[in-house]
């Protein structure tokens, strides 16, 4: 019988030695050789009649080595299962003895050693006593007004008046690189764009009032546009926004069309188009629905912020040790391509954080019996598909949806991605029930600054 021994050789690192006797691997070796003899096709011999000596000479050394190693691996795996050892990755061969040391001419006891990295035992922090905040973001009348105005314009009808008469008029223009007099550079490629009059600098806008199709203007971007609009326009024109000289270039700007969006009236037809599926008949109800939509979005952002706080509490306040030497060796040799020591040192802090988070979430899943069913994955995919269509009117017949989901469920990568997303949602949903956040009222502007500061910190 093979013997398996285990000894501790470092922090959460054990050495397992498997010793196999000749009686452990020779019977299977002989059986494999006989199977080779039955199937071998060798010129000069009838199939199944190849002498054992020929088979042994041709395949013996390779089969012998394979059977010794297979016997060692089988007993190693049996030991790990019986001992219920919770380890990182796979055992790593110690290198004391290799396949080249196994000789067919020497059927004797062979011992192979492996290192294993043991997962640490740890306790999660008490989330109830940790400081967390749930922000209540205020929805202002201006936000509601701005959103209604945006929808009135987005769903408005584009008209083509003869000339531009105000800031809200749209100018379709053609830019051509030129000199200060408007002489187009030879070989200059025209660039088309569509701009609201209000996008131009205030000092230049007056020149555009009354502009008609085919009117020409010689402009410099620095004087015609303020910095905010100038930055994206430089990119559109293929210029380097970081080069000061870019803004000094001259362009001949030709108006190719004048447009104006005719804002929608606040009537039932508009309400139905802006928020399909809701029976809204009054401006007051429409305004209330818009406010709720904005509040729902803010609540999602607030919840995301709270979950991010929880993530860092769990990650930063959970005390756990790691078998670092083993993990670095595993990281160096465990992939498709070996890594250098320098690469491992650079990657290890991030790798260790990923392991830490994996262990934390695994513990929550196990302790709380969190599970994701195949039906939940399927339902989530259905919701995802429907969200792609947004406010489109799909009619009453959605029988096509089931066949579409069936195809998605055959994509293992898609199923795994959806499973992990739902599992993460459930983990955070549980964690949220454990915290006692302080509720704070905050403006949208201050919350946005808070988010930016948080991103810089992490």
DSSP E strands, number: 11
- The first-to-last residue Cα distance is 55 Å
Unreliable stretches, pLDDT < 50, 5 or more residues? Answer: none
Radius of gyration: 35 Å
How much of the sequence is in beta strands?
Answer: 15-25%
Class based on secondary structure composition and strand pairing: alpha+beta
The profile of the biggest β sheet is: 5 strands, antiparallel
What is the helical fraction, as a range of percent?
40-55%
Helix and strand element order = EEHHEEEHEEEHEHHEHHHHHHHEH
Number of H- or I-type helical stretches: 14
* Average pLDDT, all residues: 91
Coarse shape:
elongated
Could you give a quick summary of the protein structure above?
The chain is α+β, with helices and mostly antiparallel strands. The protein has helices spanning 22-39, 52-83, 141-154, 202-208, 221-224, 227-236, 268-274, 283-317, 324-333, 341-367, 374-389, 400-409, 412-434, 444-457; strands spanning 3-10, 13-20, 92-93, 110-117, 133-137, 157-159, 169-178, 191-196, 216-220, 250-262, 438-442.
What does this structure look like?
With 458 residues, the chain is α+β, with helices and mostly antiparallel strands. The chain contains 14 helices and eleven strands. It has helices at 22-39, 52-83, 141-154, 202-208, 221-224, 227-236, 268-274, 283-317, 324-333, 341-367, 374-389, 400-409, 412-434, 444-457; strands at residues 3-10, 13-20, 92-93, 110-117, 133-137, 157-159, 169-178, 191-196, 216-220, 250-262, 438-442. Strands 6, 7, 8, 9 and 10 form a five-stranded antiparallel beta sheet that branches. A four-stranded antiparallel beta sheet has the order 1-2-4-3. It has a two-stranded parallel sheet with strand order 5-11. α1 packs across α2 (52-83). The longest helix has 35 residues, at 283-317. The chain is elongated and about 100 Å long. The two termini are 55 Å apart. The model has no long low-confidence stretch (mean pLDDT 91).
């Amino acid at each position: 019988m093979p013997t398996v021994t285990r000894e501790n050789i470092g922090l959460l690192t054990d050495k397992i030695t498997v010793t196999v006797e000749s009686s452990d691997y020779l019977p299977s070796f002989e059986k494999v050789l006989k199977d080779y003899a039955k199937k071998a096709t060798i010129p000069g011999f009838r199939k199944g009649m190849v002498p054992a000596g020929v088979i042994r000479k041709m395949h013996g050394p390779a089969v012998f080595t394979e059977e010794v190693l297979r016997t060692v691996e089988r007993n190693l795996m049996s030991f790990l299962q019986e001992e219920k050892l919770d380890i990182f990755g796979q055992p790593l061969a110690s290198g004391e003895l290799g396949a080249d040391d196994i000789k067919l001419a020497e059927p004797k006891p062979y011992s192979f050693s492996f290192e294993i990295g043991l997962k640490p035992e740890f306790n999660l922090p008490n989330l109830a006593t940790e400081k967390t905040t749930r922000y209540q973001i205020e929805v202002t009348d201006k936000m509601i007004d701005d959103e209604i105005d945006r929808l009135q314009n987005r769903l408005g009808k584009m008209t083509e008046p003869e000339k531009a008469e105000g800031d809200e008029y749209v100018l379709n223009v053609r830019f051509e690189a030129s000199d200060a007099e408007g002489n187009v550079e030879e070989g200059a490629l025209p660039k088309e764009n569509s701009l609201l009059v209000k996008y131009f600098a205030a000092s230049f806008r007056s020149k555009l009032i009354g502009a008609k199709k085919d009117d020409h203007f010689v402009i410099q971007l620095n004087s015609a546009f303020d910095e905010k609009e100038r930055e994206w326009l430089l990119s559109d024109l293929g210029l380097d926004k970081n080069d000061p000289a870019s803004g000094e270039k001259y362009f001949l700007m030709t108006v190719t069309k004048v447009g104006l969006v005719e804002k929608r009236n606040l009537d039932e037809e508009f309400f139905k188009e802006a928020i399909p599926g809701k029976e809204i008949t009054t401006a007051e109800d429409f305004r209330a629905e818009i406010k709720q939509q904005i509040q729902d979005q803010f609540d999602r952002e607030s919840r995301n912020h709270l979950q991010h706080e929880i993530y860092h509490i769990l990650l930063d306040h959970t005390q756990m040790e790691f078998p670092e030497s083993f993990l670095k060796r595993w990281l160096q040799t465990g992939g498709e391509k070996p890594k250098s020591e320098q690469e491992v040192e650079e990657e290890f802090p991030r790798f260790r954080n990923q392991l830490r988070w994996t262990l934390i979430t695994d513990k929550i899943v196990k302790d709380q019996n969190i599970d994701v069913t195949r039906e939940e994955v399927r339902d989530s995919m259905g919701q995802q598909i429907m969200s792609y269509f947004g406010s489109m009117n799909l009619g009453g017949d959605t029988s096509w949806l089931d066949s579409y989901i069936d195809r998605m469920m055959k994509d293992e990568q898609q199923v795994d991605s959806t499973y992990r997303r739902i599992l993460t949602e459930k983990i955070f949903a549980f964690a949220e029930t454990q915290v006692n956040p302080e509720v704070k009222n905050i403006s949208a502007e201050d919350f946005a600054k808070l988010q930016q500061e948080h991103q810089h910190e992490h």
